[in-house]
Amino acid sequence: MEFTLVTARTMEQGMFVEDKLSEDYFKATACCEMNPEDMNALGLKDGDRVRVTTQYGSVVLYVKRSVLDVPRGVVMIPLGIYANRILPSESGTGTPIYKNVRCRVEKTDEEVLSIEEIVREVVG
Amino acid sequence: MKVSCPFCGNVCDDINFDGEVEREKLCPLGESKLTREKKRIPYPMVEGERVSYDEAIERAVEILLNAKRPLLYGWASTVNEAIRLGVILAEKVGGVYDTTSSVCHGPSILATIEEGLPGGTLGQAKNRADVVVFWGCNPAEAHPRHPTRYSVMVKGFLVEGRRLRKTVVVDIRKTATALLSSKFYMIKPNSDFAILTALRSIINGNDSAVPNEVGGLSKSQLREFAELLLSAKYGVIFFGMGATHTRGQDRNVEALIKLVQTLNRHTRYILQPMRGHFNVTGADAVACWEAGYGYAIDFSRGYPRFNPTEFSAVQLLRRRDCDAMLVVGSDPVAHFPFDVVRHMAKIPVIQIDPHYNLTTKVANVVIPSAISGIEAEGTVYRMDGVPVRLKKFRESEFWSDYEILKAMLERVVERKGGDVVW
Amino acid sequence: MVSLEVRNGFVIDPMNGVFEVKDVFVKDGRIVESLDKPEMVVDAKGKVVVAGGIDVHAHVAGGKINMGRKMRPEEMRYPRFKSDNLRSGVGRVLLTSPAIGYEYARMGYTTVVEPAMPALYSIHTHEELDSIPIVDKMALPLFGNWHFVFKFVKNDEIEKLSNFIAWVLAKTKGFGVKVVNPCGVEAWMFHGNVYSLNDTDPLFGVSPKEVITGLISAIERLKLPHSLHIHCNLLGIPGNYEVTLETIKLTRRFENSERQVMHVTHVQFNSYAGESWKDMSSGAEFVAKEVNRNNVTVDMGQVILGHATTMTADSPFQYELFKIFKTKWSNLDVELETGSGIVPVYYSPKVRVHSLMWAIGLEIGLLVDVDKVVISTDYPNGGPFYSYPYIATLLMSEKFREEEMKRIANVERYSILPSLSEERTLEDVVKMTRVNPARILGLNDRGHLGENAKADLVIYDLPPEPNPRDYESILKALSNPSLVLKDGKIVVKEGRVVKHTWGETIWVKRDYDEELIGDELEDFFNYYTVQRDNYGVPHVRREVVLC
Ligand SMILES: [Zn+2]
């Protein structure tokens, strides 16, 4: 299914941002939030894994039912290396566009990469 | 005594300290910052090997002096005193100075260059604002005490609390801040510019130019919104990444500024970007007085030049246009788009930071520092530019950012010659 | 180098009545009577020797100029100094901090006053002052729209007001008391302004008249070295010369034999007659007469045709300018204290109002008694400070004025400048740039070359009485001093900065009783967003405290 990807600060991301090797930080950033109806449509429940793909790349994340209201058609990923794995660097202002990028979301059985693994993948 | 919290752009300065930090006034972010034990960089390292500060600094200076165009990046999480030396260091090594603004409010600065910024201090929101708008920002999660200290529930001189204030949230999702607000407008992604333009048309009396629906808001909702804005005696609009990180970027912020200009023809309004890190405002300000520009500054010609599409960190790395990098108090490996991080891994990287982070993993020289606002003192600028002193309330064996940068600068000038100019 | 002799120069030192060839001796940063064996001798034969210049009013540091830089990168794209042995420096009219220090030194100025420091931002102002090399500096906190001041004035509590001023000077390391559009800035928070000395602010109901006289009473009681420093109401508005006259007359109740009781700053901007932009004309003659009759001093606020950036604490005025120019506009409302605004301008010789402003400034410079007026541009409002040699030359040479007026839209219909044949002498210029500023600020260690004065000394390649018709030589010499000493060190040679030094920050300390204003402090700090403990400037690079 096609979605609009937005990144955002979340409380958890902020709380653990200076402790990036912690399990807490991993949990706070290797995830995405979706509208419950979208999750139903994709046969997803809380804690399932999804592959989120943009034209720039692809990443596996845990999915969370949106506590408040992520609208239908939107998937929200907290700021961090997981989100950045699939975001573009080009922009007309010098500042990358971290929001409103088209993406595809599909259910997957693949594992979510650990922080160590994703750094290795990003660094190449 | 009272200490100030070195986490977000609120820089709350009312935290009680009596041998230890009292948690009562802390938000979850502040609590984590001031009380959570985190993995520190234990000692200076060169290529993963433990070395002395002296050796690490020596290697760092060699890297900077040998590079054709080193990038000196970060600066949002340290104090002005250190930032100032960082700008001078960039000048002396002929490098590029860039701050985290280039990945957050860079577009707001570009809009300010077009239009100026009609602003005010946070105390103006507290004391006078009867209408407060949060546009594409979510203080409930990013600046948790903003509503209670400055903008929503706080008791001010003229506006005595929440009941007398109308609070409006504009966002593409119903954020935690939306729950605090008296009015929430859910808009479609990428529609900020169109909505802002429509609001301005209505306020200017060109209602007929506005279509029946804009960005998910009906014309009657837009009229109601415009009325609400105009009902203020003194209004404040706060905005965040919802404007700068979406299509339009600087044009969205320009539209916000123009809306505030227009509103000032009828009543009083101010606009305030919600700056993230506790001293990202200082990182821009210090560079402005030392070098004329806030970020994306190149010194390769011996004097500063500014060009955000050319000299901002992400663009420089993207074009493989820097051959060494100094990162101070930031984590670009975690926060830059992945393709530019790949270039970081190929060039020598020096890191100065208290905490082990993802950039540590690619850094060739790692220099641990004292935590500003806990183990080192200094001046920082709150999001509205109001200077706040950070205090030192814990001893540390680590050098402060200031001490590390001073040692680096001294060596650079020693090698290159010239007066002591800092 | 610790000692030095300047030999055979023609010394112009009006404060000490010196106008003759004389040797000057410098030791440990001060002027001394004589020296046995100077370590260095500078030959100044055929040149004049004067004290370092003093700028009483230039917005060189703090949130306003820095916001100006931020919003105007087009101003910064002018390289002036390359990094090399010193710092780099850039800017057209708005300069970076290193460039400000270097450019002042380059024209023989060694002291500057930043005249608009919002107390809440005083740390920032001082950080920037600490980044300006070579010159000594001072900063004036803004009092004219501060809730504390309104309250004390309303209740006629002058003792409390005096205590408050002393408390503020200590907290902010401030030098004196600045007022900008008293009550008008508070009115702007309600979308208004004040239009006469008797209008009142909407919150406390006090008038500019009450604020001005209240503050003068407190300042005189505290015996501050500098008087009230005022940017009058209605600045920049045609017809405003009347409010300027009224403001000056408020000083008649006060006496002070040491110095003026009011310094009206950048008075050019407050010397407009007429009723609208269309029929605006010069009111300089009236203002000059009133200044000469009263114990008041002024600085010119000369407009330099070309680019400038207006930046004042007068936020309602700045908004009016924005509406006129429809260009960029920044505003900063500062909780409980003050406000500010910034609008870029281009003063065009083709625009009548701008030409007239240029003429009015010069009228002020020629018509006010020579010991009451100081050269200034209200940098960067009227233009660059580095144009002071240009202004001095205009004042010295009628021919130069005639030449300049040829390229400037017909000012003769609205200004009396073309009919003024006065020519200031070089000695007059020394008064207007050295002697007067030192006296106005109450500083006796500078502005002259007497024994024990600071060895801030300038050598110009000029005869003591240059021929006014040869204005080109005058301008060239004043713009490029042969030598500048700051605290006895050579910082400039033949117009080039050769050494990076740091000057001092001077502030004024008076005793105060915090208890006396304890209730008010406690009350108002409920409404600040910073803690009372955290308010104020903990330290500056090098300070001199006047007690
Ligand atoms: Zn001024």
Which ions and ligands are bound to the chains? zinc ion
Uncertain residue segments of chain B:
none
- Overall CATH architecture of the domain at 52-368 and 381-424 in chain C: Alpha-Beta Barrel
Count of DSSP-assigned helices of chain B: 18
* CATH fold field value of the largest domain in chain B: Rossmann fold
Oligomer: heterotrimer
How would you sum up the global shape of chain C?
globular
- Structural category of chain C is alpha/beta
Number of domains of chain B: 2
Spans of chain C of at least 5 consecutive residues whose pLDDT stays below 50 are: none
List keywords for this structure.
heterotrimer, A: about 120 residues, alpha/beta, Barwin-like endoglucanases, 6 strands, globular, C: about 550 residues, TIM Barrel, 9-stranded mixed β-sheet, 5-stranded parallel β-sheet, binds zinc ion
Task: Please tell me about this protein's structure.
- The complex is a heterotrimer of chains A (124), B (422) and C (547).
- Chain A is α/β, with parallel strands linked by helices.
- Chain A is 26% helix and 33% strand.
- Chain A has helices spanning 11-16, 23-29, 36-41, 81-84, 115-123, and strands at residues 2-8, 31-34, 49-54, 57-65, 74-78, 99-108.
- In chain A, strands 1-5-2-4-3-6 form a six-stranded mixed beta barrel.
- Chain A is globular, with a radius of gyration of 14 Å.
- Chain B is an alpha/beta fold.
- Chain B folds into two domains: 40-103 and 278-416, 3-Layer(aba) Sandwich (Rossmann fold); 106-273, Dimethylsulfoxide Reductase, domain 2.
- Helices cover 37% and strands 18% of the residues of chain B.
- In chain B, the strands form five sheets. Chain B has a nine-stranded mixed β-sheet with strand order 4-3-19-18-17-5-6-15-16. A five-stranded parallel β-sheet of chain B has the order 10-9-8-13-14, sandwiched between helices. Chain B has a two-stranded antiparallel sheet with strand order 1-2.
- By secondary structure, chain C is an alpha/beta fold.
- Chain C is built from 17 helices and 26 strands.
- In chain C, helix 4 links the parallel strand 9 (109-117) and strand 10.
- Zinc ion binds at residues 57, 59, 115-116, 266, 312, 378, 381 of chain C.
